[in-house]
């Protein structure tokens, strides 16, 4: 499946570990640490092969940095082979860890810390650098959608999925985008990419919208004629509402279902009320359709 606005092929996998964790030298220190930290926070781990605590700390640092998915980088410097910058930073014992932001050290610690504290250190540094880049891309996609820029939103979602193919928020947002643009086939394909049991409001909304579309009658003339002849023909009104919802005319569908509830709220085991809930889910819990529909339904039920 090709994504709207996608520049490459299918998602390629997680962030390349070699891009965020590397062995540093005195010769590469300026480029790998000082210059690199002007765009992404960099952690420097000064260590040596003979240092027991270093062997304990190293894996915890790598794990936390990898989990940050590119928000922080790690450069490991063996001080026996590369003593210059360790001397400039006055490293007196190892392991010694320094955090660089904008070309200068801003934080650090010495000795091996518990894994939980290492993670807190990395997470804190990630926030100084602007936070998780994937979260930033998700926010960019949401802003594009609000501005009606479907192509820009699709491009942002595609970039996220190239880095994290099973990112539930990106899959939900992309499926929602396709559904809103009328491409139900691609929306369904994106849903199938989601991890089994994944929960997300957008995924749930698209599933509900697709169900409405699949159940919707293709023609409305018959039901409109039946309603003109008998306004109490609840089955005709219910089918008419399904057709409206399936074609995206959600608020009109809500009004027809509300009318059924007003005339006979218990009709067909409260089918109209249950269908309203499906429409609210398909439209999104914060949508105007859901907000207005719930107000109308509550006013009717509790009047």
UniProtKB/TrEMBL annotation:
Residue ranges of every copy of the Thioredoxin domain listed in the record: 10-127
Keyword Electron transport appears in the UniProt entry: yes
GO biological process, one term: response to stress
Highest rank taxon of the organism: Bacteria
GO cellular component term, pick one: cytosol
Pfam family membership, one: TPR_20
Annotated Gene3D superfamilies: Glutaredoxin, Tetratricopeptide repeat domain
Keyword Electron transport (UniProt): yes
Gene Ontology molecular function, alphabetical: protein-disulfide reductase activity
Protein name, per record: Thioredoxin
Lineage: Bacteria, Pseudomonadati, Pseudomonadota, Alphaproteobacteria, Caulobacterales
